[in-house]
Amino acid sequence: MPALKRKQSSVNLLPTDEGDSSLKARIIRWLLGTFRFLVITVELVVIVGFLSRFFLDSQNSDLTDNINEKKALIQSYLPFEKDFKRTQKRIELLNNYAYTSTPLGDFVSQITRNIPTDVQITRINKTGEEITITIVAKDEQAIVAFASRIQKESLLQNVSVLSVESVQNSSLIQANLKTELPKTQTNEEQPS
Questions:
Q1: Is there a contact between 122 and 172 (Cβ–Cβ < 8 Å)?
Q2: Cross-strand bridge partners of residue 104
Q3: Does position 189 have pLDDT exceeding 70, yes or no?
Q4: In this predicted model, what pLDDT tens digit does every residue of 40-66 receive, in sequence order?
Q5: Is domain 104-183 given the CATH code 1.10.3720.10 in the classification?
Q6: Which of 5, 8, 108, 110 is in Cβ range 3.0-4.6 Å of 153 for a Cys bridge?
Q7: How far apart are alpha carbons 60 and 28 in whole angstroms?
Q8: What's the rounded Cα separation, in Å, for the pair 137 and 166?
Q9: Digit-coded pLDDT (tens) for 10-20
Q10: Chain-centre distance of CA 38, in angstroms?
Q11: By three-state DSSP, how is residue 26 classified?
């Protein structure tokens, strides 16, 4: 007996012509087309980002090398810079001292020209606006005479005796005198 012929069923996955004009088919086609463009755009962005990474990495490496070179150069100048700043501070202090006050040599010369024969100066110490003078004399009259003489000088003011004491194992007397310096010069009086 011959086999019964069955009707072959066909499977067609392609849409029929009548489905192309429906609203649902048009929305699906639009979505698929839009998503294709989106996927292509994203892929292009990823490819450009991947390729630009090599360029940016080389630039980053060059910049890092450049920064390290300049950093090493700056660090090599650091000792010179510290020495230069230290010297500038010293010069500034010297200028302030030299141009804002009378030189210490003038004070010393005024003090030494008034020394009686029986008085010896052992120390002169300047602290701020004060000068402390340590002297050794044979008697107290010589100390008083020396103090009254330097009181008359123009650069020394308010001479006072701080202490009087005898020197060990000697007949001499040691005295400490203090005098104030006149006010410093103003900036207008500084030499240019």
A1: no
A2: none
A3: no
A4: 999 999 999 999 999 999 999 999 999
A5: no
A6: 110
A7: 46
A8: 10
A9: 777 765 655 56
A10: 55
A11: helix
